[in-house]
Amino acid sequence: MKDHVMKPLAILILEDEIVNSKLLQGMLEKTFLSISRSDVAKSLSCAFEMMDMFNYDVVLLDLNLPDSKGLETLITFGDKHPDVVKVVVTGEYDDQLGIQTLAHGAQEYLIKGKYDVYTLGKSIQYAVERKRTLDKQANLLEELENVNDELKDFAYIISHDLKAPLRGISTLANWISEDCGDKLGEEGKEQMNLLLTRVERMHDLIEGVLSYSRVGRIKEDLVEINLNKLLPEVIDMIAPPESISVSLDNELPVITAEKTRILQLFQNLISNAVKYMDKPQGKIQIGCDDDGEFWKLKVADNGSGIDKKHFEKIFKIFQTVSASDSYNSTGVGLSVVKKIVEMYGGNVWVESEVGSGSTFFFTFRKIERISEDAQLKTITAY
Ligand code: ADP
């Protein structure tokens, strides 16, 4: 890669003691750096006036000035001039302070009397390079976020707009079936039915993309959710057949999250456990373990089970194991589960044996219970 050539630097020395500023100016002249100008400001307010007059690239900044002390100096300066490279030069030897200045936007930290001409030049050069790299990264991140937002909107808009013509096709096909039933003949009717099934399937897939794109795009308030109360609600909604029992193994935690997402998460896992149940006496068990910083939750069933080779694939969108028509599958449910779990900083995985059943595990980061002032509601399910 080609070396970057540094342009001549305009440097502002922010230092109230004339001996120190003269010394710094003298040393700067002797460095290998190409310097277009170096000026001195004796106070923060004076520095702001000079910043308005000249485009300084670098400021060498003493933290203790007549009109500002300590980290505050760096923070106030940085808020007003985020683009300028900041090298803190201070009399105090304090490692903690050094780290704090870096955390508050300084690119380098120097202690008076502990540097020579060479290290001063190198420190400024590194600080300039570091800032350039950081700015580049910040720009890239911003671009990525924009592209990501556009993609999310794109998926939403496309799928939303596809629904209207699809509805049109479905209506037309129904009319043809009804009005021209006699002319179609058996074979024609069968093909028309096939067409309607395909339209329905496409509708389900589009709905899948919509619900996948809603996760993270539609924001809801974070609320405290008592899972012991939420789960009966979800089970009622799914209404499993009598041959399948659903039980809570142990006390479930209260978590902080968006209610719709958590409903969606359990709904997908439990309805899959019902959908892929192949035993006359189905058993679904929901439980939770304390896993340090996380809760480890599980939804276990004694259904058909999943071959190990599919463990990763099933969490990807539109990926199904069995022929998609046989179970009315779209391959969206688990990808939505994964997206929700990861949005809250957790992981999801499956343990399973073909014929014996599957256990889906996911972790959920514990968050301290929210205080009253945060004005968050506690969900009561009934
Ligand atoms: P869908 O159920 O619509 O196919 P999912 O993303 O929810 O989509 O599931 C992907 C695949 O994972 C399913 O097609 C099925 O083969 C498998 N699967 C998911 N949950 C279970 C389960 N509890 N038992 C057996 N197989 C399952």
Brief sketch in words of this structure:
With 382 residues, the chain is of the alpha/beta class. The chain contains nine helices and 13 strands. Strands 2-1-3-4-5 form a five-stranded parallel β-sheet, with helices on both faces.
Report on this model:
Helix 8 packs antiparallel against helix 9. With 382 residues, the protein is of the alpha/beta class. Mean pLDDT is 89; it is low at 369-382. It has a five-stranded parallel sheet, with helices on both faces. A five-stranded mixed sheet has the order 7-9-10-12-11. The chain is 47% helix and 20% strand. The protein starts with 8 loop residues before the first strand and ends with a strand. The chain has helices at residues 18-30, 44-53, 71-80, 95-103, 117-179, 181-214, 227-238, 259-275, 333-343; strands at residues 9-14, 35-41, 58-61, 85-90, 108-111, 223-226, 244-248, 254-257, 282-291, 294-301, 348-353, 357-365, 378-379. It has nine helices and 13 strands. Bound molecules: adenosine-5'-diphosphate. Adenosine-5'-diphosphate (ADP) binds at residues 268, 272-273, 276, 301, 303-304, 306, 314, 320-322, 329-335, 358.
**Rg value:** 32 Å
String of helices and strands: EHEHEHEHEHHEHEEHEEHEEE
Q: Percent of residues in helical segments?
A: 40-55%
Mean pLDDT: 89
Q: What small ligands are held by the chains?
A: adenosine-5'-diphosphate
What overall form do the CA principal axes indicate? elongated
- Count of DSSP helices? 9
Beta strand count: 13
Low-confidence runs: 369-382
State the assembly state of the protein chains. single chain
End-to-end C-alpha gap = 64 Å
Strand content: 15-25%
Read across the widest sheet, the strand sequence of neighbours is: 2-1-3-4-5
Largest sheet: 5 strands, parallel
